[in-house]
Write a sequence for this structure.
């Protein structure tokens, strides 16, 4: 079955019948299936020039969807300041993929993101933060408070933070224009996307626009992933953890759409006076217990008195 917005490979008109038949044996019949096919399958049936031609043709039909071709960067990693979490993450949060950070309470993921921002700015002198503040929840005063605690002069970094406050679905995509204008080969970029789930939830209340807006959310996440790879950016996607009313399972908001794209997921759950972080990278799942303070998350410390 082909979705109404998908296209069969034969309709592109540039792939031979022989290759289409061979790809069907690999269970690849449509453009979307080819876009998400493993690299070894793509390289098996198309040489470099053919890959370029095919994917450029597909991108004409799906402007917000990309296949990553011949892009090579040295991965950029920023510490979380949490030793046990860094061990699981391979040193910290990394570039060229989306790291989704979820929690039921906003302040936990905000504290985590603010600490990443400050660590990023200290690590890279030539840097810029683009903060996509969909929920209007960004608190520069809290960031300055954390900076003071970490003995960082806020005058050295506030001018490096660009805050984007979209009010419509179309304005959400204007953030990519903002990114393009601020991308320089010698600059490092951290892209924080805050409250994207709540934003698209609030704009899908009318049933006649629900499907359209959900597709726009999918396109937004795909484009963010494309930018992370093309420009070697660190992308933090801050999202809610919610309970599925059918299964009672706690999962990220819009999980069925977002979950297919993100490379690393960090879920924060409260457990008594501690917080547990569940890290999901591919099929690998690990947990670590953390402590929470007014200034962020840290390795768990058992406090015993008497």
């Amino acid at each position: 079955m082909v979705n109404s917005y998908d296209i069969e490979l034969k309709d592109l008109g540039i792939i031979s019948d022989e290759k289409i038949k061979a790809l069907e044996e690999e269970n690849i019949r449509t453009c979307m299936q080819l876009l998400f096919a493993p690299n070894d399958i793509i390289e098996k049936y198309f040489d470099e020039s053919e890959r370029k031609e095919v994917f450029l043709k597909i991108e004409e039909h799906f402007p917000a969807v990309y296949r990553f071709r011949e892009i090579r960067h040295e991965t950029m990693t920023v510490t979380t300041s949490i030793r046990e979490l860094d061990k699981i993450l391979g040193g910290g949060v990394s570039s060229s993929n989306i790291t989704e950070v979820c929690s039921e309470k906003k302040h936990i993921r905000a504290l985590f993101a603010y600490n990443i921002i400050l660590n990023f700015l200290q690590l890279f002198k030539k840097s810029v933060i683009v903060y996509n503040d969909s929920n209007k929840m960004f608190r520069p005063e809290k960031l300055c408070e954390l900076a003071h605690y970490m003995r960082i002069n806020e005058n050295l970094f506030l001018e490096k933070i660009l805050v984007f406050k979209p009010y419509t679905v179309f304005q959400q995509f204007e953030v990519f224009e903002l990114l393009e204008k601020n991308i320089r080969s010698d600059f490092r970029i951290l892209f924080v996307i805050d409250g994207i789930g709540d934003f698209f939830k609030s704009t899908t209340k009318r049933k006649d626009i629900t499907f359209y807006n959900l597709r726009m959310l999918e396109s937004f996440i795909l484009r963010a992933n494309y930018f992370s790879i093309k420009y070697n950016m660190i992308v933090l996607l801050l999202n809610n953890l919610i309970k599925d009313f059918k299964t009672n399972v706690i999962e990220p908001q819009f999980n069925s759409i977002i979950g297919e794209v993100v490379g690393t997921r960090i879920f924060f759950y409260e457990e008594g006076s501690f917080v547990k972080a569940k890290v999901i990278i591919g099929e690998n799942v690990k947990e670590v217990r953390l402590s929470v303070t007014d200034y962020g998350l840290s390795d768990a410390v058992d406090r015993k008195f008497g």
Summary: The chain has two domains: 9-61, 77-261. The radius of gyration is 21 Å.
